[in-house]
Specification:
Blueprint lengths: L12 E2 L10 E4 L14 E2 L5 E10 L5 E9 L8 E7 L9 E2 L9 E4 L5 E7 L2 E7 L6 E8 L3 E9 L5 E9 L2 E9 L8 E2 L4 E3 L4 E4 L5 E7 L2 E7 L7 E5 L6 E4 L5 E8 L5 E8 L5 E9 L4 E4 L5 E6 L7 E9 L6 E10 L2 E10 L5 E9 L4 E7 L8 E4 L4 E10 L5 E7 L17
Parallel strand pairs: 1-32
Antiparallel strand pairs: 2-3, 2-34, 4-5, 5-6, 6-7, 8-9, 9-10, 10-11, 12-13, 13-14, 14-15, 14-16, 17-18, 18-19, 19-20, 21-22, 22-23, 23-24, 25-26, 26-27, 27-28, 29-30, 30-31, 31-32, 33-34
Length: about 425
C-alpha cells in the first residue's frame, strides 16, 4: 500500500485484506519514510490453529526484520504460551518459525543489530531468559540470565553494532517492583554483568533501553511522576511533576535524550496531558500542559526527534480525535492534529507511537464505535511536515496486540495479531475523525 494523496470523502485508505485464519501478520516498509514509502503486502508469520499474544518486531538499518510472539495452542490453559521467532534477512525471504521457550512465558522483547545478529528477552515466572543469534544464519542459543527476584515483567532489550546486549526488566513481588539491568558482550564465552543493585519503584514502572545500552525507568505513585536512570550505583530518582497513578509513557534515544508523558486529573474531573523531556546534559525540563486529553504515548527517534500523542476524548458521544506535539531535532515543539476532531459515537485508543530515523512520526490507533467494531489504522507523516496519511489494517488487530519497529535510517516494520471477535465492516471510504 502506498501512502498517496487523500481521496475526496476518505482519509483512511485500505490495506489489502488477507485471510482471517492468520495468527501473526507483518508488513514492512521500504527504505524510505513510511509516510511516502510503499509498504509490503501483509505476510502471515504465524500458523493458524493457535492464539497469538504480545507480538514484538525489530528492524535493522540494513532492512533485516524479525518478529517474535507468544504462541498459545487453541484451547490450552493458562501458562501454556511459548515464545516464537521468525526473521527475514535484508533482500531475502522469510525463514521458518522457531520456538525459543517452553510454556509459561511472558511478553517478549526483540532487538536486531546492523549485521543481522539478534536477541530476544522474555521471562518465565521468576526467571529471565535471553536468546541470542550471531549473524543472520547462526543458531539460536537461550541463556538463563537472572532468577529469584520476583515475577519477571516489562522486559526491554537493546543490541548495538558491536553485538553487545543490554536487557532491563522489572521483578515484581507483591506491590514492590525492583528494576534491574544486565549486559553481555559479543563473545560466545562472555558472561552477563549486572549493572547496579537495582532500583525499587513504588509502582509498576515504564522501562526503556536505548541501542547504546542506556536505560531509564519512570513510574507514578501517590500523585507524583518520577524517572530514574538504570545501571548506575545508587541512582537518584527525579520528580517530574504531579500526575495520577497511571503508568507513564516513556521513550529513550541513544545519547540519553528522553521523553516522559502522563495524564493529570484536574479538580473538576477533566484531564490534561503533560510531559517532560531530558537532553544530553541529563537535566529534565517540563513541557507544561499540552492539551486536553488522556493516556498519552511518546516516542523519540535515533536523532532525538520526538512525539507526544494522545486521544482527545475517552467518552463516546463527545468530539473525538487524536492530537499531538512533535519536535524535529532541536526545534521547538509544534502542535499537530493526527486525526481531526469530529463529533462521533466513538472513542480513540492508541496502540503505539514511533519516530523513524529521518524524524517521521508513526501512530497506530483504534477507533471504537458505540455499536461495536470500528477502524484500526496506521497514520504517518513525513519528517519535513505535510499532511498525515492513514491506512487501515486488515484484518484489524486486537487492542494492544500491535508492535511497531523502526531503524536509524528510515525503514519501519509493523506486526499485529488479528482480533477474531472484532466486528469491523468494510474499511474503505470510512473517515478517520473527519466529517
Amino acid at each position: 500500500m502506498v501512502f498517496g494523496p487523500r481521496r475526496p470523502g476518505a482519509s483512511v485508505d485500505e490495506m489489502r485484506a488477507i485471510p482471517l485464519s492468520a495468527a501473526v501478520i507483518l508488513l514492512a516498509a521500504a527504505h524510505a519514510s513510511p509516510a511516502s514509502a510503499a509498504w509490503s503486502s501483509p505476510h502471515v508469520a504465524g500458523p493458524s490453529g493457535t492464539e497469538v499474544r504480545a507480538p514484538a518486531v525489530a528492524r535493522s538499518p540494513a532492512g533485516d526484520v524479525m518478529t517474535v510472539w507468544v504462541r498459545v495452542p487453541r484451547g490450552a490453559g493458562p501458562g501454556s504460551g511459548q515464545v516464537m521467532v521468525r526473521s527475514r534477512p535484508a533482500q531475502g525471504t522469510w525463514g521458518p518459525a522457531r520456538r525459543l521457550s517452553g510454556p509459561g512465558t511472558g511478553a517478549p522483547a526483540a532487538a536486531i543489530a546492523p549485521d543481522g545478529s539478534a536477541a530476544v528477552a522474555f521471562g518465565i515466572r521468576d526467571v529471565l531468559h535471553v536468546a541470542r543469534r550471531q549473524g543472520r544464519r547462526g543458531p539460536w542459543r537461550v541463556e538463563r540470565v537472572a532468577s529469584g527476584n520476583g515475577h519477571v515483567v516489562d522486559v526491554r532489550i537493546a543490541l548495538d553494532a558491536r553485538r553487545r546486549i543490554t536487557v532491563a526488566w522489572s521483578a515484581r513481588s507483591g506491590d514492590a517492583h525492583v528494576v534491574r539491568t544486565a549486559r553481555r558482550g559479543p563473545r560466545a564465552s562472555g558472561r552477563w554483568a549486572y549493572r547496579g543493585d537495582g532500583v525499587v519503584a513504588r509502582a509498576r514502572p515504564a522501562i526503556e533501553v536505548a541501542a547504546d545500552g542506556r536505560a531509564l525507568a519512570s513510574w507514578a505513585h501517590d500523585g507524583s511522576v518520577h524517572a530514574v536512570p538504570l545501571g548506575g550505583l545508587d541512582p537518584a530518582a527525579t520528580r517530574l511533576g504531579s500526575g495520577d497513578d497511571q503508568i507513564p509513557s516513556l521513550a529513550l534515544a541513544p545519547g540519553g535524550r528522553a521523553v516522559v508523558g502522563w495524564r493529570v486529573v484536574l479538580p473538576g474531573g477533566s484531564t490534561v496531558v503533560t510531559a517532560s523531556e531530558r537532553g544530553r546534559s541529563g537535566a529534565w525540563r517540563s513541557l507544561g500542559d499540552l492539551g486536553v486529553g488522556s493516556r498519552p504515548e511518546v516516542a523519540i527517534g535515533p536523532r532525538g526527534d520526538a512525539a507526544v500523542v494522545w486521544p482527545v476524548s475517552d467518552s463516546i458521544g463527545e468530539r473525538a480525535g487524536i492530537d499531538g506535539q512533535i519536535r524535529s531535532g532541536t526545534e521547538p515543539w509544534r502542535a499537530t492534529p493526527v486525526v481531526a476532531r469530529a463529533a462521533c459515537e466513538c472513542r480513540y485508543v492508541l496502540d503505539g507511537v514511533a519516530v523513524d530515523g529521518r524524524g517521521g512520526p508513526l501512530v497506530v490507533w483504534h477507533r471504537v464505535r458505540r455499536e461495536g467494531g470500528g477502524v484500526v489504522a496506521l497514520s504517518a507523516r513525513a519528517a519535513a511536515g505535510g499532511p498525515w496519511r492513514s491506512v487501515a489494517l486488515r484484518p484489524p488487530p486486537s487492542v494492544g496486540d500491535v508492535a511497531l519497529g523502526v531503524d536509524r535510517v528510515a525503514g519501519a516494520a509493523l506486526a499485529w495479531s488479528p482480533a477474531r471477535t472484532w466486528a469491523a465492516g468494510p474499511l474503505t471510504r470510512l473517515r478517520a475523525g473527519a466529517r
